[in-house]
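Quick one: co-fold with manganese (II) ion.
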Amino acid sequence: MEQPSINSHIDAFSARLIRQKFPTKQAVITEIMNLKAILHLPKATEHFVSDLHGEFDAFDYVLRNGSGSIKQKIHAHMDGFLTPRHIEDLAILVYYPEDEIDHQKKHLHGDVLDQWYLDVVSRLLTLLQAAASKYTRSKVRKALDPNFAYITEEFLYNDARDFNKHEYSSQLLTDMLSLHQAEPFIIATCYSIQRLVVDHLHVVGDVYDRGDQPDKIMERLIAYPSVDIQWGNHDILWLGAMAGSKLCMLTLLRICARYNNLNIVEDAYGINLRHLVAFAEQHYGENPSFCPKLVPGDSYSFTGEKEQLTRIHQAIAIMQFKLEGQTIERRPEFKMDARNLLRQIDYKQQTLTIDGKTYPLENTCFQMIDPKNPNKLTPEENEIINSLLLSFQNSTKLKRHLDFMLHKGSLYKCYNGNLLVHGCLPVTADGKWQKVVFNGHTYAGKQLLDFCQEQIEAAYAHPDQTDDFATDLLWYLWEGEHSPLFGKKKMTTFERYFIKDKKAHHEEKNAYFDLRKDEKFCQNILVEFDLDPHSGHIINGHTPIKKGQSGIMAHTKMLVIDGGYSKAYHHTTGIGGCTLLYNSYGLQLVTHHPFTSKQEIIEKRHDNLSKIKTVNQVERRKKVADTDTGKALQHRIEVLRVLLNEDDAI
Ligand SMILES: O=P(O)(O)OC[C@H]1O[C@](O)(COP(=O)(O)O)[C@@H](O)[C@@H]1O
Ligand SMILES: [Mn+2]
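Sure, here it is.
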């Protein structure tokens, strides 16, 4: 039978590259054997987190404990050999090795300390072996600290009880102590365990806003070996600012002022706010509606900061509302005329008419608004906004963070049969895809998301264009009625500042959020994204899960994992959020207790972990062959086979 040419599978360039990598027939055969064997390894663990909202310490803790995966591994391999107290101790050591060593050194000395080092080295090696057993040696090596890779491999792949190796292994351990290598070895091994227990991280949106350390989260993500991000509405604000949207920039600044977080902008990203501060001091005064929201544990850093923030908060909010009006007028296709609020105010009566209903306004601060032309910025406001945008776009650190966010991120992701999306798929009340018309074209369902994705990339590629359609669309994604990231009819920011009547604050959710409890509805979505409706799941963030509620919906088709990390929302959720694990046995939803502090965990000797609930258990343990990586490997094997056959034909 005639063999297909290699060119029917791959282009000539790729064929040349493969030939260079595997120049001999034996090399090709070895690679085929290697890849085929990998297909039979168990599926690696995926970890899903969402709505981190700047809470670095809580997020860092969830990464370190792998949402309970480390503890599960310890139980699986050491139950019966360690007492519950020693299991707890070992877990805390793996999470926070440096701090736990310091803690132990306060109590243990001399020979007792040396014995502790030896005990934990042996336990950690058992754990490392268990974590590494799912992977090839070459992958394990990449997860080891290069300083200790050789010696770790000696321990991992030799049996110390082997008569011939016994003295060899004990000499290694003796030297580890005498050469003061026990501590760095323990620390390195703990991080290798963390890295091997979870293979890939999905961040289902909203890294930014409300909490005060999003920059540290971004650094952590950049350093993480394997990660993807599905943008949340808050991330879009930051991407939007870098892409040139003044309105996105003002909105995120307003949120920073509201949560006493302007230090992120000033200190973490080096953006100068002096002109804005001076302007706010000059034109705005005290106003109870604009006092910053402090979360428990937060405090002001100088006397008068509260008053200063209250003024800045108003100055930004008013500029934001003016630019919203301008954008709405520039973009009739957004169909947001009803949100052009500054034009709907009766400035004499101090009332606002929305959807035919008139409300009295309180705590107003409209002194910089010209009632005849309310959306017009004053020259000074204009100047402030332009120079702020320049500083945003010129912040090297912010650019590095947002470039990473853009390149590792997307509006949605199909991964191993599941659909990951932060917010929703906008639908009509009867569950049909919501049709949205932009530039004369109608988009709905997956096409709407694909269109928005293209526009985000286009806007980011042209940061100098500040009021083109693509850049304006980034703001629409923040609060437009048919934005897949927002999923509500309107955002009532203005009403919450100035109208007392709570009914005016209501934000009606898209029908999606009720319909997603229905299995058939979820299956339709999976089909829309070319995923298997029977085995696939949809994973959402965005809507906090309250205590007593379940994030598992539609007979497990829908999994909602809003991290709920945000301290500002703990009083409503009562929990520290949910995360998800997907290992070779199936999916597990993890509910976390609110994170307190590293110190408390170490002092109280309790990791304060979280309830793990099995979502589904697969009938047959999943292998690499069942994953997207497996499919890619299978394709590589086919290509190599063709190469081999061509060689035979020569
Ligand atoms: O509680 P805050 O900070 O005022 O924010 C409320 C606003 O945030 C939103 O909930 C959007 O943010 P989330 O994506 O975090 O839910 C809006 O719907 C709402 O208007
Ligand atoms: Mn969100």
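If it helps, The radius of gyration is 28 Å.
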